[in-house]
Design brief:
This protein is α/β, with parallel strands linked by helices and 282 residues long. It is built from seven helices and seven strands; from the N terminus they run βββαβααβαβααβα. The chain has a domain of 176 residues: Rossmann fold (3-Layer(aba) Sandwich), CATH 3.40.50.
């Protein structure tokens, strides 16, 4: 039901003060205060809060400072340059001690290099990172070039990209005082692509060590793997045969055929301690 303009106002009751008439009173929406005879009652004021000590008003707003290109969040990172040859640990130290170093653990599929590298990194007395080339390669989800389907230009390109990514990560870890160990199946008959690539991406201070158990052990461990990391027996045998070319190369070689992971990691630490005192020529 609609009311016409100028509809009658509510009846006046006792003490009621009539409101404004349209067109003759204050603007609409303004509440007219009733007038009472005599002085107005005192108004209650809110309690006064004393100002805080040393406070002189709101601080002036300052424009935010844009982050520097050399910072990540609020943590400034040193530049990641090539890794220099590390200094040998003090003679009193057992193994590598507290030395900051970069290690490349080489071995065929099924040699246990990823497990040994992770165990060695986890049990050092100083911060140490483990960087697995296979893990980085598998960051590519859609379009992953699986070498099991055949080695081609695309799988080779993804392999090179993963190696550069691992080298970049290693340099950043080392620039911040964190040691690192990388693992990869590097072939001795491709020195420019293998060791040469790692040396370019990480630096001359990289310490390579070869993990090479017997063929029977490698076949047995490979059979326990799953997914695209499990290779055929023929492929494993072919890779193992090519890895035998590391004998006579001057690089330290560990045969962990009869060793568990903890023992192999301890042997690796001793080998690296000797390599720090007398770095291999590679």
């Amino acid at each position: 039901m609609q009311h016409a303009v100028g509809a009658p106002l509510p009846p006046h009751g006792p003490g009621h003060v009539p409101g404004p008439v349209p067109g003759h009173g204050p603007a609409a929406g303004w509440e007219h205060q009733a007038q009472h005879p005599g002085p107005p009652p005192p108004r209650s004021l809110p309690p006064q809060v004393p100002p805080a000590q040393g406070w002189s008003g709101p601080a002036a707003q300052q424009a935010p400072v844009p982050p520097s290109p050399e910072t990540t969040g609020h943590v400034s990172l040193p530049p990641g340059g090539p890794v220099p040859i590390p200094s040998p640990p003090p003679p009193a130290d057992c193994g590598t001690g507290a030395a900051t170093l970069a290690v490349l653990l080489i071995g065929p599929a099924g040699a246990g290099k990823t497990t040994v590298a992770r165990h060695w990194a986890q049990h050092r007395r100083v911060p140490t990172a483990h960087i697995s080339l296979d893990d980085v390669r598998e960051w590519v989800c859609s379009g992953f070039a699986d070498p099991q389907t055949g080695w081609n230009d695309q799988s080779e390109a993804q392999y090179r990209l993963a190696r550069r990514t691992c080298g970049f990560a290693a340099r950043n870890f080392l620039a911040n005082g964190i040691s690192c160990i990388l693992d990869d199946a590097v072939f001795p008959d491709r020195p420019v692509v293998g060791l040469g690539g790692w040396k370019r991406h990480v630096g001359p201070g990289l310490l390579p060590v070869v993990l090479l158990p017997g063929l029977e052990i490698v076949l047995e461990r490979n059979a326990e793997r799953s997914g695209n990391r499990r290779l055929s027996d023929e492929e494993v045998a072919g890779i193992h045969g090519r890895m035998a070319g590391w004998y006579g190369s001057g690089l330290p070689i560990i045969d962990n055929s009869q060793c568990d992971v903890e023992t192999t990691a301890r042997i690796l630490d001793d080998v690296l301690a000797r390599a720090l005192k007398s770095p291999p020529a590679w």
